[in-house]
Every structure is written in C-alpha cells, then in structure tokens.
Amino acid sequence: LKNDIEDLQTIIKNQAETIEEQERTIAGLQEKALNPYANIKLTAEEEDVFSWVLALEAKNEPEIGRRAVVETACNRYLSDEWKGDTIGAILSAAGQYDGYKILQEYRAGMRTSLYAHPDESEKETIRYVLSHGNTALPLDYVYFATYKANGKDFIQIGNHYFGR
Questions:
Q1: Residue 54: left (phi > 0), alpha (psi -120 to 50), or beta?
Q2: pTM of the model
C-alpha cells in the first residue's frame, strides 16, 4: 500500500508539473498572439540607431505619437510589402526615415550639429512598443509625415499624420 501511495504521489506530481508547463506555454503563445511585435529583437546597435531616429523624427511629440513612429517601423517589418529582415534595414531603406539619413550625414561629417539627441526616453519608448505591441496604430499603418503624404485613412497624432 505504501508503494502504491508513493507511486500515486509521483504520478500526481508529474501531472502537476506537466500542467504547469502547459500553462506557461499557453501563456507565452497568448502573449505572442496579443503582441505582434513579440518576436522582433534588436541588437544594441539597432536600438541605438532606432533611438536616434526616434529623437530626430519625434522628440517633441506626445508619447503616443512617439510610439506610433516606432510602430510604423515595426509594422513595415511585419509586412510583406517592405524589404528588410531587420529593423535596421527598415530604418535605413532609401527615402524612408529622414532621421536615419540625417544621423548618417552627421556621422559622416556632412552636418555639424543635430536638432535633437536621444536620451533614455527614446529607448524606453522602443522597449515599451516591443513588449506591449501596437497600442497607437493598427498593424497596417506604415506611413507617417508632418502632412498627409503617402497612404490613406490618416490618423493625426501630435504633429504627424499616420496612414495605411
């Protein structure tokens, strides 16, 4: 009887561990399903460049507008219509993010100063978006400018217009 009880305790313990593992797996899958950006990973260099681009594009915008700028890059990354297998490639695409072009000109000595510099708040905004998903824009919004440029169905946030 003692052996039967010990066997049953072992079985129950194993089942409990299996259930806990299944619950962790389900929670992880749900988090990824709720956060479309959960699989986007940035290198330290990409995060640094992204923070510069964000500062140059939206330094004085409200936080929701800064998140929206970050989300346009993430939405492009997820879209089949945009070329780029990294966020760095999305940001550096020709004719897209002016902040990237301005940063490269500054680093190459073609500019002697910049009108905005990142601080920790840019990295916090980027990290927030990557960990919480799209909280400012729908996933198909990939354009932004200070006027209604590309896209359609514009949403104005701060001084920017975001479009599909």
A1: alpha
A2: 0.79
